[in-house]
Design goal:
GO terms for molecular function: helicase activity; hydrolase activity. With 337 residues, the chain is of the alpha/beta class. Helices cover 53% and strands 8% of the residues.
Length: 337
């Protein structure tokens, strides 16, 4: 029994630890209304595994909930709402039919067929009734219960856009339709292994707040407009340096919407976290390869400006050439000056 218990305890910086505790981290962020969330990982396979694990956990939890008495009571309430709505629709249609009855020249009651068709259409659409209020509440059990999704409330995206994204992602999402299942639960995936059309659809869904969580590599942190409220760094990696960390961390906090962003480290040692948080910015140095042809062209430009009498421009070029600290250039330019 002791061996079985120890077998389920993973090292905090291991891959299994991240997979096991990711759902708890995301649930806590969702409960605190810290979404949308970007989960960064440097491995495409890890992003896919995290998405698959979360989708399967949500599907299993929903399947278990649908077998409970609480869901049975909820489904019964939905059925009663649907029956009441249908009864009101029929009553509305009957009332409208009575209003459309007319009399001909002989005094016989007739019906205007055109008005009857319009009445049936209006009743079927749920509008046009007078003095009859619709019952508030759901009439159909959702295909995916909202309690088992990460869809952001008050999303700013049309249903047609979501359906189009579903179609594109199902075509390029693999045999298990992982992307389609994920989108229905407000989850997304973004890495270089996906088709460009699929990545663009994921970006649209994330910016439109349909996908409350997206698993991505560092590609989403570079040059893609994808602001969020919280960032999760899932696992350590050799490429996780100060520059990448600051670039990913900068995604947290939406301009004009959030006063601050939130950052969560998962599966990263405290020593690495301290180094990332306290390290200074990386100094970027150029590594320009100066060949003989480049030197010749620069010297020709220098001689041209000298003969044209452009002293100000000439001195500026000389200053820039000397700043490159090339020994060959320094000796030649100094001799000319």
């Amino acid at each position: 029994m002791e061996d079985e218990t120890n077998a389920k305890v993973f090292f905090p910086t291991s891959r299994q630890f991240v997979l096991e505790h990711m759902v708890n981290v995301l649930r806590e962020l969702h409960h605190r209304e810290m979404g949308p969330v970007i989960v960064f990982s440097f491995e495409m396979e890890m992003c896919t595994d995290l998405l698959r694990a979360l989708v399967e956990r949500l599907e299993a939890a929903e399947a278990a909930y649908r077998t409970t008495d609480e869901f049975a009571s909820y489904a019964a309430t939905i059925a009663r709402n649907a029956a009441a709505a249908e009864a009101q629709r029929r009553q509305r249609l009957s009332t409208m039919k009575q209003k459309k009855l007319t009399k001909d020249e002989d005094g016989n009651v007739t019906r205007n067929e055109r008005d009857m068709d319009m009445a049936e259409d209006a009743a079927g659409a749920g509008g046009g009734g007078e003095g009859i209020a619709l019952i508030e509440g759901e009439t159909v059990v959702p295909e995916v219960l909202p309690e088992f999704t990460f869809v952001v409330p008050n999303r700013a995206i049309d249903v047609e856009v979501v359906q189009r994204a579903l179609q594109d992602c199902e075509e390029g999402g693999g045999g298990d339709n992982l992307l389609g299942r994920a989108i229905r639960r407000g989850l997304g995936l973004h890495h270089a292994g996906l088709k460009g059309k699929v990545r663009r659809q994921m970006e649209v869904l994330f910016r439109g707040r349909h996908c409350g969580v997206i698993f991505a590599t560092e590609t989403l942190a570079l040059g893609v407009h994808s602001p969020c409220r919280a960032v999760v760094l899932a696992g350590d990696h050799v490429r996780l340096n100060t520059t990448q960390f600051r670039q990913m961390m900068g995604r947290a906090g939406r301009r004009g919407l959030d006063f601050l962003g939130h950052l969560v480290f998962l599966g990263i040692s405290m020593k690495k976290i301290t180094r990332l948080m306290t390290s200074g910015e990386t100094i970027i140095k150029g590594n320009v390869q100066v060949d003989a042809l480049t030197q010749l062209r620069v010297l020709q430009l220098h001689d041209y400006l000298q003969h044209r009498g452009r002293d100000a421009k000439q001195s500026d070029i000389i200053r820039r050439l000397l700043s490159l600290h090339n020994p060959d250039w320094e000796s030649h330019i100094t001799s000319m000056v």
